[in-house]
Amino acid sequence: MKYKLEWEFKAKGLDSILFSSDFLDGEHALHAADELEKTGRSGEISFIDEIGTSWSMKEMRKLLAEVEEEPHDLTVYFDGGFDSHHVKAGLGAIIYFKQGKKKYRLRANEVFDELENNNEAEYAALYFALTILEEMGVKNMTCEIKGDSQVVLKQLEGEWPCYEETLNRWLDRIENKIKELGLHPRYNAVGRKENKEADKLATQALEGKMIHSKMQIL
């Protein structure tokens, strides 16, 4: 979750002026607020998160202490592949996140034999990624979701319609899971090159190479 600062500037002989910052990660926002207070020229300082909730300095310190130990700053990549000869799908998911002061990458894949085509595999891959977030205990977080299926992401944003009943059922499952987890998603369509890790995991699943690993990254 990112936050922007709002604060009053007290100028001599003038009415207070309200200022607002860009969105910052929680730690930087709190540090900036501390520096503002030291000037002795700022009035009340508020922190506004990406969904519009306002926090005081005291509330912000408590919030960050609680969030620090949970997975946060989530970025999810997903991709699906389909083997028409064997009629099975490979699903791949990469999740980048922070926990404590460390950064991690989780890689996982799955094979699924009840799908009909590559389009359906893309929806199933995103749903698979969401079930991993659920297993991680992720709740009430912002989450950036990236994939090379523009159709899936644009339909979730409500920009493109979906006319296929089967795919609409997958959209319903995805949206319900997002609601259950209290996620606030930001969808970002990327090129296949940027999504190559998730694509490779989907391919490995079709080859029978199952992966579920978590590692710390710098």
Explain how this protein is built:
The chain has 6 helices and 11 strands. The model has no long low-confidence stretch (mean pLDDT 89). It has 2 domains: 2-67, no CATH class; 72-217, Ribonuclease H-like superfamily/Ribonuclease H (Nucleotidyltransferase, domain 5, 2-Layer Sandwich), CATH 3.30.420.10. The strands form 2 sheets. The protein has a 6-stranded mixed beta sheet. Strands 1, 2, 3, 4 and 5 form a 5-stranded antiparallel beta sheet that branches. A hairpin with a 4-residue loop joins strand 4 and strand 5 (54-55). Helix 1 runs antiparallel to helix 2. It is of the alpha+beta class and 218 residues long. The chain is elongated, with a radius of gyration of 21 Å.
Question: What's the SSE blueprint?
Answer:
Elements: E1 2-9, E2 17-20, E3 24-25, H1 26-39, E4 42-49, E5 54-55, H2 57-67, E6 72-83, E7 88-99, E8 102-112, H3 118-136, E9 142-147, H4 150-157, H5 165-181, E10 184-189, H6 196-206, E11 212-217
Parallel strand pairs: 6-9, 9-10
Antiparallel strand pairs: 1-2, 1-3, 1-4, 4-5, 6-7, 7-8, 8-11
Helix pairs in contact: 1-2, 3-5
